[in-house]
Amino acid sequence: MVFAIVSLLARPSISQVLYPESEYLDYYRILEIKNPDQERRLNIFPSILIPYGVDSLGWDAWGNNTSAHARLVPVRWAHHYNSSYARSYNDGALWRGKGYTTSIQGGVQGKIGKLEFTLAPIVYFSQNADFELAEPRDENNPYNYQFRNKRIDYVQRYGDASFAAFNPGQSEVRAVFKKATIGVSTQNIVFGPAQFNPLILSNNASGIPHIDIGTYKPIKTRIGWIEGKVYYGMLKKSDYFDGSDEWNYRYWSALSVGYSPGFLPELTIGFNRAFYEKSTDFSPIDLLVFINKFDDTDGDPRINDEFDQMGSITMRWLFPEVGFEAYAEYGKNDFGGKIWGTAPEHARAYTLGISKYIDLTPSSILKLTYEHTSLDKAKNSIYRPYNSWYSHGIVKSGYTIDGQIIGGGIGTGSVSDVVDAQYFSPKGRLMFRIQRIRFDDDYFFEEIQDELNHDHEWTLESAYSQFWGSYLVGFGAGLHFRQNQYFIKENDKTNLSLSLSITRAFGN
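Above: the chain's sequence. Below: its structure in token form.
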């Protein structure tokens, strides 16, 4: 009944909803490089975005299946299975524990005057079956991460029973005033061009409930294209960090700016900054906290420890004529010194990536990507200590929401390499991927220091998606070889993951 009423009131929408882990995320990236004359995203990659007009695209292999004029947003019904342990990356609010997980997301979208709205929640069920967890230490909750001494709310298993959950997902209400906008949203947003492990904000956890103020879409000026937004939100603690109410909520604010120069429009430079603190410590001046100096300690590392911060500089350079892009993100953590200076590696993290787009036919394309991410500490941490990324000694629940990391999904102190190949045609998509993750090198080098005890994982996975009328049906399978799990020699596991998804697209 509600959907019927909203459909009658709503005018055709002008936004496209891209669910985390959906095939459309990569497809829209291809649209950007194949249609260089169109407006494109710069440094802010939202899940609810203003798409390209279907009739104006020179290349659009999926055609009307990417229509942005639907009153109903696509409905996605997904099923996942993990045979040996929980494994859940870049899938938003969804939690893929051991065993079977199923989810459904969808909703309605529309526009009334200057107001635009999207309601696209997700409901899911997780079998959350039992598997071996790290041995509890330091009186930590047994379901929380055990290698950071109560400095991060990072859930390894959500209790000892199956559960169902609801999340607002990709939902928002937004007022648009020509080139400016203000919105209330829970959508997933990615800062910067990284495809697998963005440093500051990613699709790894649920979207942060927030208010944002800034540009509606990139604005053309005399010096080039500019976009920017400020965000004010709230981070929620999981039920598996501690029994105290002290860390139930944290105040979060962020700033993201992107710039593409008029004389070199294929280049985008971005700047991102995020802060969080215990919500009870909030004061009105914190609404402007992102204008503080990045190195705001005056030589005393204890200053500003009542809140934590992260910042990053991003770069994306497109070469549409040869189908190539290079991108990078360099970040600093926890007031870790000047961006440059005598020790630029101090408190740093980075992601480097390249993608090559190869036209196989006029309507099919092969996308090849390599991405490397380093969240581990630099060598100078031996004599200049600092917090591991996403964890903190004062803001103890860390940079997470409901127990999942908001930035790079590989986790605190970890290193990753991904090689990814995707083939797109009018029929659908075929994907092959190899990934290596070495988990929490910070803990390893501080506590283990035995080269045979690295906790690491190799992944081989493939997926195939095909259109059947207005339905996109996807199948996926992966093998994950975890060695020395929890830094225990020869504690090896092999995990089989399977997935099936059905996405119903709505046309004009």
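Helices lie at 2-9, 23-34, 441-448.
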